[in-house]
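Objective 1b: paired records.
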Amino acid sequence: PEAAVLRGREPPVGASPRARGAMATAQATKNTITLKGSTAIVTEFFGYAVNSILYQRGIYPPETFERKQKYGLGMLVTTDDGLKTYLVSVLQQINDWMMTKALQKLVLVVTAVGSKEVLERWVFDVEQEGVETADGKLVDAKDGSTIKPAKSEKEITGEISAIIRQITASVTFLPLLEEACTFDLLAYTDADSTVPVEWEESDARNIANGAEQVKLRSFSTAVHKVEGMVSYKSNED
């Protein structure tokens, strides 16, 4: 279906945080990950991935991040109250769209503050791989009959860890951001999905005059598959 491109509005500077909890923690059964459990895993990944990108690309000062252990790695997570509030709000809506199978992709756009030029697009495509049957089995989303093998949390964590490592290593190939930058989060959803007032329609915010692309690793929960890619403006004109 045709996608609606939506932009999460960042709260005003100094907005008091409404968030009281940490990111959602996935609840998975030993045998089969449910839609709810898979959605929690993917949403939590998005939260840590966005934090990692904002830190690695210097969008927010390094002193506004703290280290936490996740995926067997030392993850950097923001301590900025306004940013925390914004991310909690966005991730809750992402969770809601995924529960209704409406989310197609999440895109983090890095934009130069002065020129408004789009410099980077971090794209995470979401594919529905498996669906639950009435008797609790997980079958292939395309043919509706083939039973999908379960994946352990250890397997999923290993795949997610590999993507996070790639994001961390991105500074070795991405051009230096030589001016102050800001970011937006765009969600591509089914055209008929419900849009809350906190979100607004957006264009795709593509990089002008072509872009270099680097494909990131993917991970699968057996319910969802997430594939990553970063495109960036080359300094070579």
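Objective 1b, second protein:
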Amino acid sequence: PSSPVCLGSLSASESELRPFFRDHEILAEYKLLCNNVSSGIYVVPSLRSIQVWNGVIFIKIGMFAEGCFKFNLNIPDDFPYSRPSVHFITPVFHPQINAKGELNLTKAFPTWTPRKDRIWHLLRYAKRCFFSVNTFDATNPAAALSVQGSIEDYRQQAKLCVQESIRLNYSENTPKDDGSVFSGKFLNDTQLQIVKDKLYKGNLDYSLMFN
């Protein structure tokens, strides 16, 4: 007769394997991102955890033109069954970005379907928000009121955000550990392209960002 199956042991094994399958899904997502990422977005897995991706978005046109906004993308433990979140480290005065820097993803991604909804979809949406000032279901009431009160006043607020983003990226007084691998050294477009090329080849040397 066959040996009885120990449900307790089976459950333990599944629990141990779950992080492995999750990390496999995350790596597959990163490969897809490299092939589909929008221009001006650069993302690197954190040195601390594969579940945290550090990124920066460069804006070339619109109200936030010339801005460089750093963010963290946080991937939940039960990924791909739950939606990741985006948290901006650089302050952004925007109706859909709350005071803590959290991007409102509820309207764009009310549900998250595994292997249909992709992280690169989410990041593409994050960049598009800089060209849209939709106040519907705003999570930053002050920014929404500014837009509704006077779009010109809001443009001035956006310019202040751009100036602050540049100041923070170049300031020697900026904390070296703010949760982003981009904190060690500000990279210009050329340097970021070098990092991106190395990511494609799988031989990124993180010293590029810290020396």
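The first helix runs from residue 7 to 36. Helices lie at 7-36, 119-128, 141-149, 151-170, 189-201.
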